[in-house]
Amino acid sequence: MDMNVVITGAGSGLGASLAKKYSNLGYHVCLLGRTQTKLIRTAEALTNNYSIYEVDISSKKDVAKVMQLIKKEMGTIDVLINNAGVGTFDVTENLSEESIHQMIDINLKGTIFCTQEELDDMKKRNQGYIVNIISHSGKRGKVTESVYSASKFGVRGFTESLALELEPTAVKVFGAYMGNMKTELWGGASTEETFMEPDDVADIILENIKPRKNILVKEVVIKNDRNKQ
After folding, report:
1. What is the pLDDT of residues 2-52, one digit of tens each?
2. According to a count of CB atoms within 10 Å of the terminal CB, is the N or C end of the chain lower?
3. Angle ∠(20,23,26) on CA atoms, nearest 5
């Protein structure tokens, strides 16, 4: 299979799980993230070809540079997975200016910047898949998640609007909304038994975006039935 997938936030958690799943399917996996050591750790578990790219997706300039390099080295990008995300969880008045900027810049702007870089090529080829990893926090607000939720509601609006823009084309857009997973996002809480396994969530996402005749799944909501997160 001569197919390429780009995954942001591929150094750990769901991004790393998706990278392994796509590698097993025969894709060339482009691992994007801020920390090279984490990306290398993910790469060591892959069974097929991969490339590593350090990038700060909150910088439109950095994103443009890296995406152009990927296309130069790999050719077309068949699947773009906007997975990178950060969160600071506290009551609103305690959130620092830095953490507010970081959540909006990475979660929302980063998703937009990465998508912008691929849209023209996908539309010209009339094919491609854009997968946005969002969160239940993009569906409803939650105590201590005001700005995190705001950023995810933004991604939800972007995803739904983008899907409408692309309706005349064969380019597909998919939104994944899931509850708490065992990832670094939740720090020490990620060991909670009720939190979902990233590998399980990755399986569900891949199953829902798999090509099927006369069927298009636009989004999936993955809930933990034990704690209703």
Report:
1. 899 999 999 999 999 999 999 999 999 999 999 999 999 999 999 889 999
2. N
3. 155
CATH 3.40.50.720, applies to 4-222: yes
The partner residues of 32 in beta bridges, in order of sequence, read 8, 53
pTM: 0.93
C-alpha span between 138 and 159 (Å, rounded): 11
Beta bridge partners of 82: 132
- Domain ranges, ordered by start, for the chain: 4-222
Residue 215 · residue 186 · CB < 8 Å:
no
Q: Which two tokens stand for residue 151?
A: 């950023």
Q: How many residues does the chain have?
A: 229
- The catalytic residue among 22, 27, 53, 148 is 148
- Three-class SS string for the chain? CCCEEEEECCCCHHHHHHHHHHHHCCCEEEEEECCHHHHHHHHCCCCCCEEEEECCCCCHHHHHHHHHHHHHHHCCCCEEEECCCCCCCCCHHHCCHHHHHHHHHHHHHHHHHHHHHHHHHHHHHCCCEEEEECCHHHCCCCCCCHHHHHHHHHHHHHHHHHHHHCCCCCCEEEEEEECCECCHHHHHHHHCCCCECHHHHHHHHHHHHCCECCECCCEEEECCCCCCC
Give the C-alpha separation, 156 to 186, whole Å: 21
The pLDDT tens digits of the residues spanning 64-106 come to: 999 999 999 999 999 999 999 999 999 999 999 999 999 999 9
Residue 148 is a catalytic residue? yes
